[in-house]
Prior knowledge:
This is Glycogen debranching N-terminal domain-containing protein. By secondary structure, this protein is of the alpha+beta class. The protein has 16 helices and 31 strands.
Amino acid sequence: MKPLVSILDGNTFVVSDSRGDIDPSPTFPTGLFSFDTRFLSKWELTVNGERLNALSVDDLQYFESQFFLVPGEPTHYIDAKLSIIRHRTVGGSFLEELTILNHEDKQVEVMVRLNVESDFADLFEIKDVKEKVGTTTAMVEEGRLRLCYQRETFRRESIITSTAPAQYDETGLTFALRIDAHQQWETKLRVETLVEGAGGRDIRLSIQRHRSRTSEEMRQDLNDWMARAPKLTSDNEPLTETYERSLIDLAALRYSPLATLDRLPAAGLPWFMTLFGRDSLITCLQSLPFTPELTGPTLRYLAMSQGVTLDDFRDREPGKIMHEVRYGESTAFEEQPHSPYYGSADSTALFVILLDEYERWTGDVGLVADLEHEARAALAWIDRYGDLLGNGYVWFERRNLRNGLENQCWKDSWDAISYSDGRLPSYPRATCELQGYAYDAKMRGARLARLAWHDPIYAEQLEREAAGLKERFNRDFWVADGEYYALALDTEGGQVDALSSNMGHLLWSGIVDDDKAAKVAEHLLGPRLFSGWGVRTLAQGEGRYNPIGYHVGTVWPFDNSLIAWGLRRYGFRQEAGRIAEAMIDAGRYFGGRLPEAFAGYDRALTKYPVQYPTACSPQAWSTGTPMLLIRTLLGLEPHGEHLVVDPAMPVGMGRMELLDIPGRWGLIDAFGRGRAEHTGSVRRWTD
Length: 687
């Protein structure tokens, strides 16, 4: 299989081969996609009946790429008389500038053909191809080709035009050309996508034509985005590269759901190019000191879509924050529940956590006041609907037994929650990090109740509940003989005793008793969990451990960023630094772009981190990872109207400067340097 090339703008993206051609793939979403529908499934260029071969591919920007091509087999390169350039951008619509250059000293006749198809596949259908229920038609109109899909009121269209005269037919465009000696021919091909109507009881998509943005407009938008972000200078070149790549990728992942014009972070290319409650909330937490403009709109959108009624099909409950929203055909006709779907047990607490963190950084008490009702409803959900067994813990068990998510924590694959021997517990399940999030949400909710809602009685109630939860948790989840926290509790109250990375989230939340924190840190940086490239999701030696298993042994950058943050909270500065160094080292091997996950092989076994085969890249909370690590290393914490800077830098990282950090204090600069003092052969960590 030829290497794939991706460009994107929000949830509109194009995936092609290295020639720029698109052929439908049963395993990976190749094509032009927007709002969960494939608008182009074939986009294949031939010149004089020959497929093209790539000389080079330039990844110019996240929204722009360029292909340099010649006709014929590679053995013909030296004799090529024609060369072809395909320059493409995606910015609402899809634009391809096609240039053909004649290198001969005489006029040539050239037949150019572009084969075009659209299967209008729902993103959920890519791996599970289904016969379409609706009708697909191709219509040749004056100066354009219109491809349409209609199922009741659900309609999707692709409209293909060319600036140069073309012969259109139902399967594409043909150009019969004469190109003079040493001259060139060019045209601009545009594909506009139309989203209109819907099927299904709860989805109402308005007609929306994506406003096309030129590459110049998009470059200016990116320049403005980068200019607003803090400036990083560092002796560590991989850190600088990864930070800049992350800012650019986060810009690429911004998109506007149909219900708002605000731009929010989509979760990741290719499968998750939409808003995810958990992913978007954590991404905003990571990036808040760097790109605070994402957080307010994300909170408002999630508040607007908060559950108010019970709905088993969508796993919706009053006060619950959604998990995922989709706009494709399967959602419109209730074959999938994502309109939106509420199958996550953690997004609701994370909503309150982010709301508090946002106020701490920005001083925007107005938003806290505006979202008081939604925040109180979220806190009420924790106790009323989250506590399925009435024992003071947050549990999950799907209401939708047909196609709802079984595991509704961040490790949501089927085999992610297991006992140490590999057995799977029954439902409902109470994973440990859910309790940490609930504790943190109650503590932060108490702060907001005093600060903005002027309700000290409610604040005291939340603090009492948080204290009780912490006491119970440290009694029931602590595995005494191994001195670590169980991954979960089962329905009988027994410990699901696998050793996992989830413990690091507990440090971040503050629910860990001080006398247990050192053992947690020791396990996280011990050889069973720490690969040398990062903390594994599941420890070596556990029954289901697999270094290339999605949630059972791989290393997830976002997971590691929260773990480092938690270690720093409990005073384990050196351990946090080790994780930061490992992540930054890994980023070097991915061109500065940390993927969704990579293999958990021990670093002694591989000289580079091994790719996970189907990892999303870019992925939002992986783009946020370097930002949170920088915050952790510099010790950036808001304190009233001031920003506290308390750096703890690894020795090998040298000097770091972060300039123009935005917040309620205006703009502040932060500096840190790693250095070592030696006494004999002992290196002592200093700041």
